[in-house]
Design brief:
The complex is a heterodimer of chains A (about 270) and B (about 270). With about 270 residues, chain A is an alpha/beta fold. In chain A, about 25% of the residues lie in helices and about 25% in strands. In chain A, strand 12 and strand 13 form a beta hairpin. In chain A, helix 3 runs antiparallel to helix 5. The longest helix of chain A is centred in the middle third of the chain and has 14 residues. Chain A is globular and about 55 Å long. In chain B, helix 2 packs parallel to helix 5. Classes of the chains: A alpha/beta (about 270), B mainly alpha (about 270).
């Protein structure tokens, strides 16, 4: 179980904090939905201990993340920046990381091949020479092959074509372990009905709410007393409530960046 | 040991920056030392031996300083990955340091051996003398010590950049070893006197000179006929070991503390 308590992150002194007191518990399969720049990736970095926190703490299976060293099988992530230990070709990087984390190398190669990447191509290419979508596939395959108890996937569907998105969804739903996926795309909801959702807006986390409840949820620009969630966006309170035909369907937004257009009345 | 050790050796030995700045660039200076600057020296075996020891000590120090920049940069650019693998793979911070150190030592010793072979060959070609070191075991040991110091220093400087979150200073700070190397190189014309013991680079030059030629090294002004301050090699050795030990201890502490710097942050800076 991953627990975040009062997490604050500020990148530079005297700058607006990126995370403003994030509390949450994550122990199964969750989506973290939020627009670009809401702090989702920073939150994942903080969970991994890859960024300085101003206050608060992250506890993973009862241990503060600051005290975790050389602990395999607890967490894996698909950040490209953590797979650059050597300036080697992608094939060798996979060999290296699966060796270091005692991961299932064949699973990594199977996922990569299934996603349409040839191993010969990987032997000739460095990670930074791949397209953004190819990089995402390789890093996500490595994260999944580590078979960690908790997997953090940062925008795993970004830059993938529809067929690959569909294959990725199958991989995630069949994975035996906790997964946190952060994304700004709401189309995913209908494909992951058993998952729960947290929302992240402007450095604050809201939720959880089950996907089933959100599939017909609407967005209202009023402070509704019976709302599933009330969130602060651009200094306005927005309510996410069970559908009654009066508001904008959450799933019709395509992605959560559009919530700002709604809040500002430009949609 | 993990695959990291073997793959880092391969990565370093095929690094084009390392090959150019630590081998090819210095080979040019080997040529200059032997065939241009060396044209006026007496051709007796003892004189040639002293001159060769001076050349090897100084050029090796410059070559290792250049390698220091490359090794340091490889750590800087991989800092986020280092943080991640030391937390969530079997490569703990101390194990990472050990494997990174061993792989760097292999690369640095390979450079030292290439430098030695080329100096030997160039001197043979010019003076028709095959001059082997007076104390080969001592020279080998001093090379290991020198490479350890260079490694510890380059890691220290780059971990400092990462921990201080100062990617804007990365270019300047990572080139400091090369700057220190050139300052030390000026001892060819300036008598450093007791300052030799404070500068680990001058200690490297002195110890290599001593083990290669068997003569007590001067603290500077190498080409003056007489009157230079002589170096106490024991104190130079103590200084080198002390610098290396202190830097490695600080490296371990900084490695555990660091969060890494993103590649984009370094590029934008």
């Amino acid at each position: 179980m991953i627990t975040s308590r009062g997490l604050h992150v500020t990148y530079r002194w005297r700058q607006e904090p990126v995370l403003k007191g994030v509390d949450g518990t994550f122990d199964s399969k969750h989506l973290i939905l939020g627009p670009n720049g809401s702090g989702k990736t920073t939150f994942f970095r903080a969970i991994c201990g890859l960024t300085n926190t101003t206050s608060g703490e992250i506890v993973i299976d009862g241990r503060n993340v600051e005290n975790l060293y050389a602990t395999t099988g607890v967490i894996s992530a698909n950040f490209q920046e953590v797979y650059t230990l050597l300036a080697a070709n992608v094939y060798d990087l996979i060999i290296l990381y699966t060796d270091l984390s005692k991961a299932d190398r064949n699973l990594a190669f199977d996922i990569i091949k299934d996603m349409g990447l040839e191993l010969d191509f990987l032997k000739k290419s460095k990670l930074n020479e791949l397209s953004a979508g190819q990089q995402k596939i390789v890093c996500t395959a490595l994260a999944l092959a580590m078979k960690a108890k908790h997997i953090l996937l940062d925008e795993p569907f970004e830059q993938l074509d529809p067929a690959k998105k569909s294959r990725m969804i199958k991989l995630l739903t069949s994975y035996q372990g906790a997964i946190l996926v952060n994304t700004h795309e709401t189309w995913l909801l209908k494909n992951l009905p058993e998952w729960t959702v947290f929302f992240m807006f402007e450095g604050l986390l809201y939720g959880p709410v089950s996907v089933k409840e959100l599939l017909k949820a609407e967005i209202s620009l009023k402070e509704e007393p019976k709302a599933l969630l009330r969130v602060k966006v651009a200094d306005k309170t927005i309510s996410i409530l069970k559908g009654h035909g009066a508001g904008t369907l959450l799933t019709s937004l395509e992605n959560l960046d559009k919530i700002y257009e709604l809040a500002e009345g430009t949609a | 040991m993990t695959k990291y050790l073997e793959m880092n050796v391969k990565s370093l030995l095929t690094n084009p920056y390392l090959i150019f700045w630590s081998i090819l660039f210095i080979e040019f200076w080997v040529f200059m030392w032997v065939f241009v600057f060396g044209s006026g020296i007496p051709t007796g075996e003892q004189e040639v031996r002293s001159y060769m020891a001076t050349a090897y000590g100084n050029l090796l120090m410059l070559s290792l300083s250049g390698a220091c920049v490359t090794i340091g940069n490889s750590v800087l650019y991989a800092s986020k990955s280092i943080r991640y693998v030391t937390k969530y793979t079997r490569l703990s911070p101390s194990r990472f340091l050990l494997e990174n150190l061993l792989s760097s030592l292999v690369a640095l010793l390979a450079i030292s051996a290439i430098m030695f072979a080329s100096v030997l060959a160039a001197f043979y070609s010019k003076f028709n003398l095959f001059i082997t070191p007076v104390n080969p075991a001592g020279l080998a040991a001093s090379l290991v010590l020198s490479t350890l110091l260079i490694y510890a220093l380059s890691l220290f400087l780059n971990l400092l950049i990462i921990n201080l979150k100062a990617p804007k200073s990365a270019n300047f700070i990572s080139f400091l070893p090369l700057i220190f190397g050139f300052i030390s190189y000026s001892a060819l014309w300036i008598d450093f006197k007791a300052a030799v013991y404070v500068s680990p680079f001058n200690c490297i030059t002195s110890i290599c000179y001593y083990t290669a030629s068997g003569q007590i090294p001067p603290a500077g002004n190498f080409f003056a006929p007489s009157g230079q301050t002589l170096v106490d090699v024991n104190w130079a050795l103590i200084s080198l070991v002390a610098w290396t030990t202190i830097l490695i201890v600080i490296d371990v502490l900084l490695l555990r503390k660091m969060r890494g710097v993103g590649i984009d942050e370094i590029r934008i800076a």
